[in-house]
Amino acid sequence: MAVLVDSNVLLDLITEDPRWFSWSSQAIAAVAERARLVINAVIYAEVSIRFSRVEDVEAVLSKDIFDREVLSYEAAFLAGKAFTRYRHRGGGRSFTLPDFFIGAHAAVVGHELLTRDAARYRTYFPKLTLIAPD
Fold this sequence. Notes:
Blueprint: E1 2-5, H1 7-15, H2 21-34, E2 36-39, H3 41-48, H4 54-60, E3 66-68, H5 73-88, H6 98-109, E4 112-114, H7 118-124, E5 130-131
Helix pairs in contact: 1-2, 1-3, 5-6
């Protein structure tokens, strides 16, 4: 079993976010005990914004801890369709495509998703199993 870890959870840990650090650190520790932790290139890119050197990103997103998976074309197609539904429902341009790639990746390969953004994923990927705050 594998769990895709959303960038917001990783950034909570990296930044020691005062509101979310505790929940995110406990959640990722619990998930790591029962499943593989997975990231993709989109998550890597979102986390990398906080760093000036790739070596620092590599240290934080160590391959010893996080398996890296390629985003499939099937997932990219699903992400595009979900994003189109979002835009047709009046979604603004401030919410961008990356989260749709993350949700579609998890949905297509059957991973659970560890995230703080449950509402959006439930709306556009209703069959996706989420690990999220109550």
